[in-house]
User: Fold this.
Amino acid sequence: MRTGAVFWSQEIFRIYECDPEKTKPGWSFILQMVHPEDRPGVEQRAQMESTRKDIVDSEGDFRMVLPDGSVKHLHSIAHPVLDESGEIIEVVGTTVDVTERKLAEETLRASEAYLAEAQRLSHTGSWAWNVATKRIFWSVETFKIFCLDPNATAPTTKSFYRECIPMIGPLSNGSKVSFTGGTDAEYNYRIVLPDKSIKYIESVAHPIRTTRAK
Assistant:
C-alpha cells in the first residue's frame, strides 16, 4: 500500500490473457478491462479493502471484457495485512476464473425457465417424493393446479390425501404397491378445491431406485 507495487502470479496473467513480459501489473490495467456495468462495484470494493481495517476478508464477482470482446466471469477474494500499529500495509488475494460455472448456472436457469413456461402452457406440474425422508417437492405449476400458494403452503403427504378424492380405490394404497414393485404408475383422481369445486387430475409417477454396492 505504501509503495503501490503490485505482484501477479503467472496464473493471474493467464486469466487476464496478457503477456507477463509486456504487461505491467497494476490497478489501472484491471479497471479498464472490467465490464462497465461492474466497474463501480469493483472500485467500491477496492476502496473498502484498502481503508477498512475491520474487514478480515472481502470477496465478490465481476466480469472482464477481453480484447476480442468475449467476457470472463471472475471471483476474487482479498485479505488486508496490518502492521503492529494496525495500519493496512498490504492486500493479498486470489482471483478465480468461474466462467464455466457461471455459464452452466445460466444454462440451468434458462432450462428451468423453459420448463416452467412449458408446464404453464400445458397445465402440467411436476413433483418429487423422497420416500426415505418423506420430503415432497412441487413445481410452481403444481401449486397452481391445486390452487395453493407456494409461499404459504408446504406440500405434505397428509395434506395431499386430505384434499384428494380417489376415483378407483384408495390412492395411497395403490401408490404404495406400485412404488414397491418398482414400476411406473398412472392415476386418475379428483381433488376438491377451496371453493368446493372439483378438478380432475391425471398423475404419472416413476420410481427411482438407489444403487447399492455389492
Notes: The first strand starts at residue 58 and ends at 65.
